[in-house]
Amino acid sequence: MQLIIKGLHGFEIYPDNKAYIEEKFCKYDEMVKEPAILEIALDHTHGTRANIDKKIILNFTMPGLNQPEHIEELCEHFPEAVDKLQKRFENVLRKHKEKTEEHRPRK
């Protein structure tokens, strides 16, 4: 799986955030069909008074998916947003696996 991590609107990604994202998402390499592309974009929107302005966008493509998956999370801190995004991504993979097993011919 190709993992692409980038910053939007000139946002500079700190090495700690990049390492945390890689740690959380590289473990899914074995679960996906190749060629799979997982693109994660980080943005600091400066949008709310409550400091809930750290935005992470996930786009995922893989053979067998009818449409690319698009997930967004908005939190106060990047690690918190990454954790939420990881849980939602895991659900996407689980549902896809269940769906493909459902359509597999039985012996």
Explained architecture:
The structure is a single chain. The protein is an alpha+beta fold and about 110 residues long. It has one domain (about 1-105): 2-Layer Sandwich (Double Stranded RNA Binding Domain), CATH 3.30.160. The chain contains 2 helices and 4 strands, in the order βαβββα. A hairpin with a 7-residue loop joins strand 3 (about 55-60) and strand 4. It is elongated and about 55 Å long. The model has no long low-confidence stretch (mean pLDDT about 85).
Strand residue percentage: 25-35%
What CATH calls the topology is Double Stranded RNA Binding Domain
The number of helical segments is 2
Report strand order across the widest sheet.
Answer: 1-2-3-4
Question: Could you describe the largest sheet, including whether it forms a barrel?
Answer: 4 strands, mixed
CATH class: Alpha Beta
Indicate the structural class. Answer: alpha+beta
Domain count: the total is 1
Element-by-element helix/strand order: EHEEEH
Rounded to the nearest angstrom, the distance between the terminal CA atoms is 30 Å
Provide mean pLDDT, rounded.
Answer: 87
Give the full name of the CATH homologous superfamily.
Ribosome hibernation promotion factor-like
Number of strands: 4
Radius of gyration computed on alpha carbons? 15 Å
Percent helix, as a range, is 25-40%
Can you give keywords for this protein?
107 residues, alpha+beta, Double Stranded RNA Binding Domain, four-stranded mixed sheet
